[in-house]
Amino acid sequence: MLNEIWSSVADFYDPTIGMLRQWAWGLPIYFVVVAWVAFLARKEREPVTLRAVVRSVFPKDQYDHASARVDRWNGIILLAIGFPLSVFVAINAISVADNLAGFLATYFGARAPLMHTDWKMVSVQFAIYFLALDFSGYWVHRWCHEVPVLWPLHKPHHTAETLTPWTLFRQHPVEFFFLNTIPSFFAGVMLGLLLYATGTAVNPGTVTVIGIQVYVSFFVVDTMSHVHVHVSYGNWVNRIVLAPVMHNLHHSIELPHRDKNYGVILTVWDWMFGTLYLPKKNETWRWGLNEVEFGEKNPHKTLRGFYLEPFVSFWQGLLQIGARQDAVTPTHE
Q: Is residue 33 part of a domain?
């Protein structure tokens, strides 16, 4: 079964890769536009030269910081597993959906197909998959902040004192795994329920679109959400789609900004559940965690501390939970 799924996903990815090659020119254009916005947003006014633009887009204090160096080294490591993980996520979601739909058909009977045209199936299947993935991504991200035992694994991402595209990869490997697999499992469940309800199977075009979504999400939304420039789409659009400035603020050290803007691609979930924060005009902030939250010394400034400290904090959190349970357990004489 797994071999069949793998073969199917590989077949589905062939047209995706071909399409992405045709669209590849769009990515550098997007980065050039963002670079120009960064240059225009600078405080210092100077003649427009190539050197001035490069200095504005890649400021030395951001890219040569100890925090940024940890991001780069960890990013190289995660990139080695990032693409295989994205394929695994696709297999996970499709496998869950296929098996769940088959299970329901076996025990409750097959249903007559409600859709017969490819474009309808692709549109509905991808819409359910994407909304379920983004919705669960919002909640998993939020739990990483609000559930004490999960925070130690997510905390390294927020000890970044600078923001560069490499900060996207500032994730502990354990967190990187479950932050991707849990939403994909939930999306697979929702897609499986849809397949059974509509009497359809996963359309090859759906996985092609999923591949494009992974590409756009990774290289455009996620990467550009971790830049030092406050790029906004305007407050109306910012209420729906995650603009770089919205996630930039999520990394703020300022207390009014804490526990805000958990959205992955859509910010509509933040609006619905009361965690949306729209930055005010000319509002500024610093990045990282304060001394009360992390002490005077940030142990994540080295790769060794970045990997080991979360395990120590995670274990201490488990011990504290156990101690609290022992304290409330009644004694029997």
A: no
Phi, psi of 247 (to 5 degrees): -80, -30
Coil, strand, or helix at residue 252?
Answer: strand
Residue identified by tokens 């409600």 is: 114
Phi–psi pair at 171, nearest 5 degrees: -130, 135
Which one-letter amino acid corresponds to residue 174? V
Q: Does any domain span residue 71? A: yes
Residue span of the structural domain in which 195 resides: 2-26+66-319
Taking alpha carbons only, the member of 214, 279, 286, 276 closest to residue 245 is 279
Cβ neighbours of residue 209 closer than 8 Å, sequence gap 6 or more: 122, 126
Interval 71-97: pLDDT, tens: 888 888 877 766 566 666 667 788 888
Total of domains in the chain: 1
pTM value?
0.80
Are 21 and 212 contacting, i.e. CB atoms less than 8 angstroms apart?
Answer: no
